[in-house]
Amino acid sequence: MNAFHHGEQALQARAGVQAQMAQIGPRVMRDHMPDQHREFFGLLPFVLVGSVDDHGQPWASVLTGAPGFMDSPAPTQLRIRAQALPHDPLNTTLHEGARLGLLGIQPHTRRRNRMNGTAHLRDDGLLVEVGQSFGNCPKYIQAREPLWSPGAPGGEVAHQGPGLDEASRELIRAADTFFIATAHPDAAAAAGEPRHGVDVSHRGGAPGFVKVEGQRLTVPDFVGNQFFNTLGNIAVHPLAGLLFMDFEHGDLLYLAARASVVWDGAELAAFEGAQRLLRLDVTQALRVRGGLPLRWGPAERSPHLAGMGYWPSR
Q1: How many CB atoms within 10 Å of residue 304?
Q2: Which of 25, 43, 110, 227 could tie 138 with a disulfide, CB 3.0–4.6 Å?
Q3: How far is Cα 161 from Cα 253, in angstroms, rounded to an integer?
Q4: Residue 48's domain is classified under what CATH number?
């Protein structure tokens, strides 16, 4: 069976790599975590989580804890001893049997691994049964070291509504990183195929790589691993959840958006290095002040961003 669903395959075909990915997919998309991945999650003070609400809207969330708050009792299981942060959408989307996407990322080493699976709730957190597990390349990750800070304030809602406020726009304009959750339309099915699951992925660029115009965000899509997990999900279910982090103050910005892909045109041509553009029209916004119990070291820009362009100044 092809490791990719029909949306991912359609994007691969458009990029001319479908035959190649059909060969590579079964080798890299596993139904378990190799030992290296199992050990890796245990080193991290945070993990990104993609989930889906009752209306089919994906959300990107973060769980945190002292390194060791995650461990893998078996190759097909990841145990997470953490509760959702105050105000995080995961407080309402997480339930027994929920389909989740996970991204473990260690920014200062630029290592990252992804998986999706099914959640089983525990008193101290959850256990995720692996559906698909695979590694990712280090491209576009800004190297900054996170440290768990349990004394950090619990966070307060600074803005909530159907769109962005100006402070949220400023946070986005300054960002060099965000995380995006997407899902196959069948992701909520209890016995769905692993390839029909939830995904959460990283996006990185120079500060300002996300263009903000009113309630619309436009993001360059650079060359990647050619899996097209994010864009393939959007092709069949055009909704996305975004998470922006303010690495200086610990603020969190959760967004729900309608998503589409731009394949050609003057706007795409104006951004050197962009293969496509990702268009995101915000439908819900939640900004939490001081909600992230992590502190971050200085950032070192990804060398893969050399030669990538900027949005033309207006």
Answers
A1: 17
A2: 110
A3: 12
A4: 2.30.110.10
pLDDT digits (tens, 9 = 90+) for 209-235: 999 999 999 999 999 888 899 999 999
Domain count, the chain: 1
What is the torsional sign of CA 150, 173, 91, 115? negative
Which burial class, exposed, middle or buried, applies to 73 when counting CB atoms under 10 A from its CB (0-12, 13-18, 19+)? exposed
Provide the residue range defining the domain that includes 42. 6-305
State residue 63's pLDDT score: 97
E strands present in 184-305: 198-204, 211-213, 216-221, 239-245, 252-262, 276-289, 294-296
Domain assignment present for 281? yes
Closest CA to 299 of 172, 221, 206: 206
The pLDDT confidence band at residue 188, using thresholds 50, 70 and 90, is confident
Q: What is the pLDDT of residues 99-148, one digit of tens each?
A: 999 999 999 999 999 999 999 999 999 999 999 999 988 999 999 999 99
> What does the pLDDT read at residue 192?
64
Biggest CA pair distance of the chain = 54
Helix or strand run (H / E) with residue 269: helix 266-269
Model confidence at 312, pLDDT cuts 50, 70, 90, reads confident
- And the tokens for 94? 């997480």
- Distance (Å, whole) CA 51 – CA 197: 10
89: in domain: yes
Residue 311 lies in a domain: no
Output the pTM of the full model: 0.96
Task: Kindly state whether residue 87 falls inside one of the protein's structural domains.
Answer: yes
